[in-house]
Amino acid sequence: MQNLENKTALITGGSKGIGYGIAAALVAQGMKVAITSRSQEAADKAAAHLNKIGKGKAIGIEADVRDFTSQENAVKEVLEKWGQLDLLVANAGIGHFAPVQDLTLAQWHETIDTNLTGVFYSLKAGVEALKSTKGFFISISSLAGTNFFAGGSAYNASKFGVTGFTQAAMLDLRKEGIRFTTIMPGSVATYFNDHTPSEKDAWKIQIEDLGQMVVDLMQMHPRTLPSKIEVRPSMPG
């Protein structure tokens, strides 16, 4: 089992939801974790909570995955502070759901630019650092990345793209020692799409479950790679 103490991670969209759940699990293992948000205030607030959890450390970084320079700067800040990057989690995402004839151009571009291009930008910005550590790149896709549904044209396209992109990048870079996993959750109890989690969401996947999954992936012997993981609630609500 791999010791995670003092390893470093950068998680996009880590101030709440899945990203925060992953950050919390990593900090509890003693990792140094940078979380990004488009709001510095939100990133700092989440980092303050994370710093109360365990033996690891957390910092907040203002960054927008739709802006490549912003992603480069986030990686640079991690390297300047901690000297290495062992894990990059491309988690930031957004959802616009409407029949294709009603979907606006702005909604299409925001969905694709955030969910798909943002994953490319994150990897592109961090790839050299990950080569140095033989690190790990994890993208958060969705079961919507393999199952299409009405009203999901933009979201489906973005998540199908994330799944395909990550798996192809794995083939491009595995000889460099970088490991890749695509995690594809179903219903998760998060704030996604303006939802507020409540007791009614107890049947759903919880963010700490996905956090534990990332810990398990990081601790797995490097010879073995779960490259694509579908995750769903054991029983539908």
Automatic annotation (TrEMBL):
<dbReference type="Pfam" id="PF00106">
    <property type="entry name" value="adh_short"/>
</dbReference>
<dbReference type="InterPro" id="IPR057326">
    <property type="entry name" value="KR_dom"/>
</dbReference>
<dbReference type="InterPro" id="IPR020904">
    <property type="entry name" value="Sc_DH/Rdtase_CS"/>
</dbReference>
<dbReference type="GO" id="GO:0032787">
    <property type="term" value="P:monocarboxylic acid metabolic process"/>
</dbReference>
<protein>
    <submittedName>
        <fullName>NADP-dependent 3-hydroxy acid dehydrogenase YdfG</fullName>
    </submittedName>
</protein>
<feature type="domain" description="Ketoreductase">
    <location>
        <begin position="7"/>
        <end position="191"/>
    </location>
</feature>
<dbReference type="InterPro" id="IPR050259">
    <property type="entry name" value="SDR"/>
</dbReference>
<dbReference type="InterPro" id="IPR002347">
    <property type="entry name" value="SDR_fam"/>
</dbReference>
<dbReference type="InterPro" id="IPR036291">
    <property type="entry name" value="NAD(P)-bd_dom_sf"/>
</dbReference>
<comment type="similarity">
    <text>Belongs to the short-chain dehydrogenases/reductases (SDR) family.</text>
</comment>
